[in-house]
Each structure stands twice: as C-alpha cells, then as structure tokens.
Amino acid sequence: MKYESVIGLEVHVELKTKTKIFCGCSTEFGAQPNTHVCPVCLGLPGSMPVLNKEVLHYAVKAGLALHCDILPFSKFDRKNYYYPDLPKNFQTSQYDLPICLNGYIDIEVGGKTRRVHLTRIHMEEDAGKLVHSGASIDTSDTTFVDYNRTGVPLLEIVSEPDLRSGEEARAYLEKLRSIMQYLGVSDCRMEEGSMRCDANISVRPVGSDKLGTKTEIKNINSFSGVQKGIEYEAVRQAQILDEGGTIQQATRGWEEAKGITVLQRVKEGDADYRYFPEPDLIPIEVSKEYIEKVRAELPEMPDARRQRFQDELGLPEYDANLLTLEKQTADYFEDVVKEGIDAKTASNWMLGEFAKKLNEEGVTADQAPVRPAALAGLLKLIAKGTISGKIAKKVLPEMWSSGKSADDVVKEQGLVQITDTGAIEEIVKSVIAANPQSVADYKAGKKKAIGFLVGQVMKQTKGRANPGVVNQLLTKNLE
C-alpha cells in the first residue's frame, strides 16, 4: 500500500439535560419549530446567560470516564462567525481553557487493540437548524430556520489523529457512544442529531511521519456514513497526489446517496473565528472534592461489564462484546438472566430472534413491548419442553404485537409440543411408508436423507412434535 490515512474525529454529543445550557428552555426533540426559545438563546439585547450546572456535571463525568485531566480553572469563549442558524452571530464555546484535556479510548479492530488519544473535551452550545424546502440548499426555493436546537448543550470530544482507517473510526464512534450511554449523559441517537461527527482526514506515504494536508467531512449522521466517507476521501486524495496535484484544505460534505464527498468551503483557521473570553459568564472553578464526588458516581463501564459477562456468566467474548455495546441491551439481558434463564440461552435469543425484531421495528431493547420477564417466560417454556425452539420463533412475534404472555399465546393457538412417543411414532411410520425413495437413500448410506423425513413429520404435526423424539423414532424405525 502506497499511502496511509491519518484520521482525527471531532464528535459532538448532545447532553441529556432537560433545559438548555444557558437558559431554562426545554431541550425536548421534535417540538414545533421555534417554540423552545427565549431572549437568552435567541441572543436578544440585554439577555444574560447562566450556566446550567448539570452540563458541568456531565462534562466532568464524561472526562473522568475517558481518562481525561479535569482542569481546575476553565472558561467560556465567543467563537465568532456568521450563519443564519446562529442568532447571536457567535457561538459560546471553550477555546484555550476547556474543561477536560488529554484522555484516551481503547478500540479493537481485526483482533488488534489501538489506543486513540484525546486532545480535549469542551462544553458549548448548539446552533439552530436550517430546514430546506428541497433535498438540499442548491435545489431549494426557500430555507427556514428552526431555533429550537439553539443553546442545546453539547460536549465536543476531539481526538488526536491516531486513527488509520474508516473501520477504526467506526469502532471508535461505537465505543464512544457506548460510554456516553452508560454514563447516562446522552442518548447518542445519530438519527436525531444528538451525536454528530466531523472527520479530519489526510493521507501520507507509508513510513512517513509528516502530516499531509487535511480535509474535514462535516456532520456525518451514521456510523456507516463515517466509514464510507473516510474511505472515499482517502482514495480521492491519493488519486490527486498520484496525478501530481495538491490537496486543498477544505470542508467537504458527505452525500450518502452518491457515496461521494463534495466541496463546501475552503477551510478557515482558528484566527478566522476571532475567539475572545465570554464577558457575560464567569470562569469555572472545579475543586478536587467535586471531581472525586463525580468519580464516585461513575457506573460500570462497557469494558468492565463485557469482562464480567465472560468471567461470571461464562459467555464467549463475541457474545459479551455485542451484548454490552448498547447499555439498553446489556440491561435487558441481565434482567432476563435474573429470571433464572441460562446466560448462553438468553444471549442466543437476544442476539438472534429478539435482535431481529428490534431491527425490524427500529427500536432499542428498552423500548421493546416484550419485557425481560416475558421473554424469560418464553424461554422457560422451551426449557420445560412445552414448546420447541421453532415454535418459540413463531410465538415471539405474536407476543410482540399482542402484548400477551408466552403461556397465553401457546394455549390460545394450541402450540403445546407433542411429546407422546406413541402419537409421534404413528406419524413416523406413515411418513416412512409414504417416502420409499428417501428410505432407500438412507439405507444406502445417505444419512442426510433423514432430514427430509424429519421435515415431513414436523409438517404433519405443524411443528409441534418434539424434534429430538422425532429423530430418535425415525432412526429406530429405519434401522
């Protein structure tokens, strides 16, 4: 490979506070445009901001979870730029004295662990949202501005350029989302914009330690978009260099439908923002006692929970990884196990049929209509032999849509498993008599022929015969 990618990510995480960062307006998502606004977040003359203390709390909590240094003295600054979604014509952010410095996140890709170092975490306010009448600003006759999001609190988490591929960038984002969700500071729903990513990417010859000219891909709103955008941009830059061209430092947008990045504007530098200290907000002083108090609140983190699932519950690393990626899934799984269900059995269903239903409905585990005790009830019926695993896969969707228990669905639909060997044997004999070719194949050494016969018995019993008993009786009668 001629070139290697050098990638750093700037991730904006929307904090899960009830009110905005400097005023009492609601942060609720999905309200009518311009209904969650006031003189402070609209930047009207004479209005004065006051820091929401929960924002500071969440920032310190996130910093500690990400192994950062918490600065005892930090301040807010004005970042000046002009855009329709910024009513004050400046954004209140942090510049030279952010709340957190340094830190790291460990990721694993392809069986290898990489430590991604963090530059900083700072607090800031969000801007509003432009609503175009068309698919994009170029194809729109009108553009409206919704200021509901203006002043919603954000943490900007900035990494060092330690990532080397789109796959690593995706793993980093998934790990970061997981940590933020475990902390309870953000729901990190990329589809709602509560987690957004800007990717800085450059390429350089393999073996070089000199950084190339970077471009920034703005506001990518999906993990796959981040990975694809980085991969496309790396190829684009490499082609330019191969042709003897130079990379222009610029901001580019990711067009998901076309799978390309497009030029938005030539990149500005920090000097263009004319930062200066925010005169309407006093500096922030954080004591050691406060930091230790917040540290004591930290919950079990994803890595620790994954290891516990392996050590205490005996789960394979693969299962433990997937189950702990989202806090809601891990919580649900543990609640199922607490109902007396074997951990591996619960895992198989959580990562199989249950995950399939979540994906179909587009919901997370905590939003599923089938609660942990109800899923445990279904798994207990399988364990008791009341129903087969195959029947259970039909029962789960009915529980999901009707809200009924597994017991009720099984009784109402007459799905109780047939375990009476006498009744099954009669059907086995009739199937053997009706399929002489399969019997001949089996006796000729084609042992797979028994699978067809099992299928015929299950078909006649509408899936209710105990598969183990069916196999046993077929083998006995054939031999």
TrEMBL record:
A Pfam family matched in the record: GatB_N
GO terms classed as biological process: glutaminyl-tRNAGln biosynthesis via transamidation; translation
Signal peptide (UniProt feature, chain positions): none
Keywords tagged on the record: ATP-binding, Ligase, Nucleotide-binding, Protein biosynthesis, Transferase
Keyword ATP-binding belongs to the record: yes
Reaction catalyzed: L-glutamyl-tRNA(Gln) + L-glutamine + ATP + H2O = L-glutaminyl-tRNA(Gln) + L-glutamate + ADP + phosphate + H(+); L-aspartyl-tRNA(Asn) + L-glutamine + ATP + H2O = L-asparaginyl-tRNA(Asn) + L-glutamate + ADP + phosphate + 2 H(+)
Record keyword Transferase present: yes
Recorded GO MF terms: ATP binding; glutaminyl-tRNA synthase (glutamine-hydrolyzing) activity; transferase activity
Enzyme Commission number: 6.3.5.-
UniProt domain Asn/Gln amidotransferase: residue ranges: 331-478
Function per UniProt: Allows the formation of correctly charged Asn-tRNA(Asn) or Gln-tRNA(Gln) through the transamidation of misacylated Asp-tRNA(Asn) or Glu-tRNA(Gln) in organisms which lack either or both of asparaginyl-tRNA or glutaminyl-tRNA synthetases. The reaction takes place in the presence of glutamine and ATP through an activated phospho-Asp-tRNA(Asn) or phospho-Glu-tRNA(Gln).
Record note on quaternary structure: Heterotrimer of A, B and C subunits.
Family membership noted in the UniProt record: Belongs to the GatB/GatE family. GatB subfamily.
Protein's UniProt name: Aspartyl/glutamyl-tRNA(Asn/Gln) amidotransferase subunit B
Gene source species: Megasphaera hexanoica
Recorded name of the encoding gene: gatB
